[in-house]
Amino acid sequence: MNKSGNRKLLIGMVMVALALITIRIYPLMTQEENTLSVVNGIANLSLRDTAIFEYYTDSTTRYYISRTKDGDAPIRSMLENDGWSFVEQFGAGFLFEGSADEVDQRIVGSTQFSRYFRIWKVPQPGDQWVRINNFSLRYDSRIEEY
Fold first, then answer.
1. Which fold has domain 35-138?
2. Mean per-residue pLDDT of the chain
3. Cα R_g (the chain), whole angstroms
4. pTM listed for this prediction
């Protein structure tokens, strides 16, 4: 084979490898809305000696990432240090109550991100919370009436 044939073969192999990597990684990269923030959180979690890392915040929610092998211990420990007590788990949701006021509750959602990391979505109390008959309901301004 001449140099031109070797070059074409090498380019072909690189393209096939890139295609396979893209097929494997694409579902992971489209799983979350802000994937770059998640990747930044993974990098910070890996570089720091911490069990959980806050990687993004919006007006209603704080987003954390932890290692899957640690289970729910990082989020439970963090919220318990902030004065919340764990009540019950509902599938991927975790119910926490404020220690000062039993009416004040949060449901923390979790999502598996690859087999190595778990994303935690912690709602922030504030104007988006409405109390009705001892229940805390979260108002989501992104939902519009039809």
1. TATA-Binding Protein (3.30.310)
2. 78
3. 21
4. 0.66
